[in-house]
Amino acid sequence: MAVDLLAFPFIGGRPVLNFLGTLGKRTTEPLERLRTPEDLTRWSEKAGLAGQGVISAGPADLEAARALREALYGLTMSALGRASAEPGDVEIVNYWAAQPTPVPGVAIRSGVLHREDPAPTASAVLAAVARDGIDLLTGPDVESIRECEDATCTLLFLDTSRGHRRRWCSMNICGARAKMRTLRASN
Ligand SMILES: [Zn+2]
């Protein structure tokens, strides 16, 4: 089965966890999926965070996105008890959480009311991700964050399965690999 390693994983169950997944295989061969500003534009659309429009991310947005991602990852690791929280990470997350997100307005044209939505921006997308991160990491759902059991995968997801028994990011990828290994070992 061919797997497009650069495809964005949307298995996290939360925008922030999906965003963290744009860097894969963190502990072995880091796989950067946000390689160009266009990747950030594409991710934002697929994540449904660009509203009705399309953001046009630039090189500075890409750099900011990666920095925010790693700050959120650091705080997630601290929430999971695996590292201590870095003040620098807190600062970055708070900075982005405070950025404005688009608010709709109303206009009258020829006596008729029209809704007007401002063009979405990369900064608003990062604000939405940062706010989701704060919400997740300080709320009850933090208890349900799991890391895929595949030793090299490092993807995080929210385990909302009954009995909290989800082990893999995806049954088709890491789950299937584990099954193959078990089969081989028993032969
Ligand atoms: Zn996995």
Which helices and strands, and how do they pair?
Layout: H1 15-20, E1 23-24, E2 31-32, H2 37-46, H3 59-79, H4 87-97, E3 105-109, E4 112-116, H5 122-138, E5 145-147, E6 156-158, H6 171-186
Antiparallel strand pairs: 1-2, 3-4, 5-6
Residues 148, 150, 153, 155, 168-169, 173-174 line the site of zinc ion.
Brief write-up:
By secondary structure, the chain is mainly alpha-helical.
State Rg. Answer: 19 Å
Looking at CATH, which topology would you report?
Jann2411-like fold
Major beta-sheet overview: 2 strands, antiparallel
The H-and-E topology, N to C, reads as HEEHHHEEHEEH
Q: Tell me how many strands there are.
A: 6
The average pLDDT score comes to 94
CATH superfamily: Jann2411-like domain
Strand content: 5-15%
Named once each, the bound ligands are: zinc ion
Structural class, by secondary structure, is: mainly alpha
Bin the helical content.
40-55%
Give the terminus-to-terminus CA distance. 22 Å
What is the subunit arrangement here?
single chain
Q: How would the global form be characterised?
A: globular
Low-confidence stretches: none
* Domains (count): 1
| CATH class (first level) name | Mainly Alpha
Q: Helical element count?
A: 6
Lateral arrangement of strands in the main beta sheet: 1-2
- CATH architecture identity: Orthogonal Bundle
Essential attributes:
mainly alpha, Jann2411-like fold, two-stranded antiparallel sheet, 6 helices, 43% helix, globular
